[in-house]
Write a structure and sequence with these properties.
4 copies of one chain form a homotetramer. By secondary structure, chain A is α/β, with parallel strands linked by helices. Chain A contains 8 helices and 13 strands. Chain A folds into 2 domains: 80 residues, ACT domain (Alpha-Beta Plaits), CATH 3.30.70.260; 195 residues, 3-Layer(aba) Sandwich (Rossmann fold), CATH 3.40.50.170. A 7-stranded mixed sheet of chain A has the order 7-6-5-8-9-10-11, sandwiched between helices. The first copy, chain A, has a 4-stranded antiparallel sheet with strand order 2-3-1-4, covered by helices on one side. The N and C termini of chain A lie close together (11 Å).
């Protein structure tokens, strides 16, 4: 069943649920799911509304214009998403195969509802995986000197392919502030540690040396500061003194891929609203 | 801040969110939190509404009458709860101290907002704990022959103390169907296994012999069938071959008390709606 | 670094560590890792010894003869495994792709040190995955009437390919007692529930109807009784009332594959000793 | 059954298991449990040996002299512990009651085998809990100016009571380097965050602001650097955007007490060897 999803946030005030739900009710919509959250500290209200698309009785343009007019009176920030639009996702990789495999398998099996028009690697290592799944692979090596040109090539590829979401699936390079800004809220990175612990390079080695008893991974939106973007999902696994750095890395790869997959799925299903450094992630629900 | 909580369920239909929220909006209420769930398989709608009590502009009786009239047209099942009413909880125990200690500490520290007017034990073992917390302790020994009389004494004590909720905090006796029916939806039991695995007696021994790699505990509403009531909360802990039955039991006691505490807390906060053998447990939220 | 692994169990008695470790020390071996466990209830002793193969100063046959003579005096059950022997693993599947993908990726990336000479499916559904990884796929459909012939074909394929381990990667068929007996301790199954809860068919539907708050998966050695074999590994994930049966199934697939992968890895690394209905699973360690 | 526990570490070399186990075997000991670990990066060997005290056939002094002579040839660091010696534990607290309650209940119920001769608080808030369990409570308020005198009083109390282990059960003060040095490896602190994330003050507020999806707690040995000592145990709990700082704090208190209890138990059972910034924590076992 196709659906229309509204993501809304605004300053909290009395009667919001009533007003918004009545707006849609009067247009004849069936509300499948309505999720809300009020940030009492910031006095901000957040809502995710899922409407049955079969009950849409006007053009999409008309719906958006009507809601825009309605929203202006409540100072709503909002976006609307139609489930019959198939998002296009670019995967950026370096040498580690596990996240790439995982996302491609989930995409192919229909768990991640999206297309993957291209994979970009700064090394040729993972081309064979792209081949297995018949996805075009672009090898764009990068050095500190060639970064601007490499990123320009990348930007063109993203544009040409009408990319909606960029996933850094263990892409061990920092994107420029300009590119991150251009795709604000549309670049998801996986960091192989439980942020904010062990930012930067070699987190498993850092974890080993600090002697932690659990290791983790963090999926977050990329922003201008490395490893500082809004966190979407995290998970951890228990370890003990016996694991070497290599074993931590291997165990960690299982955490990374599941955390990244959950974050990408939440994004594709329009369940995330970013609020400063925090994310509101609505549950899967109906 | 005091609040009024409505728990509602009814057959799903178009416009429910709008109608219900508008009902309260027009009475001048501020909705603090509105949580919903639609069981698409049974086509049943569930809602928990939390209202700011300061925005109540009539008597409680009047509110209930108005909502009753409104609800009749939608065939709503509903209950209303006022946060300034302090619920009274009876704790039933046998010999294991951990759940009793845990609930008393949480009650005393204000985490569980309730009163504990009495503890009933079928053994005198835990009286010293009741003494520590200055709660009256009634020792009501029971044998198969004396069960009816013992239960009659118990029922009187529950009545005299205006008990709202009975917690079987490792009370190793089965209550009669009559008593369970009298307190339907108001008796919470902790079973020391991950139900439906290991029903009945000696679950840790059963778990040891089956060689499971995780042990668990289950808090559920008591009903006529032993260990068959609607599950409120469960949790597990990883074990391996090294743990003896005694160690499983000790590790399990940590799971039991946290699971039972969460279930009691959810009940006291009116976050649970029972739906057949399933429970809707709304998250803590604001 | 190659290694020699001894798995030993025997009735417990004084001096076992000393005797066994001295046996190997006097033959000039360097013991890399020595793991022990005593089952005090059954008075049984279990040991896993990992020796540096570079310190082997005789033929393998000679080592085995010497240890056999030594072991006879202590009534040791034992097996020896050489890490330079590459085990051959057959994967049996039906229609669910996630476990098959997962094992093939891990094998290809070197995490599971084994060969996969063939995949057997009773449906053609997953042949395309076998093709991706260039593994021969045999489609052996089965009905109640044709089971004996189908299994005979399967047995021949396993023999021809010198299969050491059979993995039922969501193979939704029961193997005959004869075949299970022939590969005793060498058939690993994944059951999509937290055994012993929800044995048999449709465990996610059972879980939904029972209203459990966590779902799980169990990897175990197959034996004559369905879902009754010794458990190797289990894991769970928290769920709530919101998940439909389909979502439980999807969430469960992530648990299934990680649980199955851990079990297969433990088996391939010779870290498991079966003891009645229980398994001793030694930790990864060095 | 009483036991003798040896904790040993030394540079790794061939024949250590054989030599050490033979040493005890020849003295007539029954080894109940032998746990080992080799840190291959530092080439260091660690062992925990548990001997049946009933098989001790000489004086304790004689045993220690013999082992001392033996150990000198292998450059062993070692300590020996007799399970019939009841360790004395001092609890230091401020205002948060949950860890104090938890440890007292576990001590009283026999789960923590130790005595608690005194509780020291820098506020009088928790005296009523000490009263409940009839443990002497010393209120030693502290200001930056009076810290030296306060600590001197504390040191005297620890000495007078022959304290073996100091537990900072949410004692919100830093101990001086001198006191920490005097009780090196014998002061356990609980930090209410998943170290090394959120060091220092107000970790739950930090966690809220960073928008993490899990919160945790860390038990560690105190050393001269705040929150930098060797980690003994950690655990986490999943959270989401809905939890306020107050709720994070409450959920965290459940993690804190279980993490602290496990760390104290591991210490009392002589299952920990500190190795630089890392700890070897042997499993519970027999």
């Amino acid at each position: 069943m196709n659906s229309i999803i509204f993501l809304i946030d605004c300053p909290d005030r009395k009667g919001l649920v009533s007003s918004i739900s009545t707006f849609f009710y009067e247009l004849g919509f069936n509300i499948i799911h309505c999720q809300q959250y009020t940030d009492v500290q910031r006095n901000q209200y957040f809502m995710r509304l899922k409407l049955d698309m079969r009950t849409l009785q006007m053009s999409r343009k008309e719906l958006e214009e009507k809601f825009s007019a309605f929203g202006a009176t409540y100072k709503l920030n909002w976006s609307v998403h139609y489930s019959d639009y198939v998002q296009k996702v670019a995967l950026l990789v370096t040498k580690a195969p596990h996240c790439l495999y995982d996302l491609l398998v989930r995409q192919q099996e229909g768990e991640l509802q999206c297309e993957v028009p291209l994979i970009i690697g700064n090394h040729p290592t993972l081309e064979h995986i792209a081949d297995k799944f018949r996805v075009p692979f672009y090898c764009l090596p990068v050095t500190p000197e060639t970064r601007p040109q490499q990123e320009e090539t990348m930007r063109k590829l993203l544009k040409q392919n009408h990319i909606d979401l960029v996933v850094l699936a263990r892409y061990m390079q920092v994107l420029s502030k300009e590119l991150v800004a251009e795709y604000a809220g549309r670049v998801i990175n996986i960091h192989h540690a439980f942020l904010p612990a062990f930012q930067g390079a070699s987190p498993y080695q850092q974890a080993y040396e600090r002697g932690v008893k659990m290791i983790g991974a963090t999926a977050h939106y990329a922003n201008a500061e490395l490893d500082e973007g809004p966190i979407i999902e995290q998970d951890v696994e228990r370890v003990n003194h016996e694991q070497t750095i290599e074993e931590l890395s291997r165990m960690g790869s299982d955490i990374e891929r599941i955390v990244l997959a959950r974050a990408v799925k939440a994004h594709l299903e329009h369940r995330i609203i970013v609020s400063g450094k925090r994310t509101i992630v609505f549950s899967t629900g109906v």
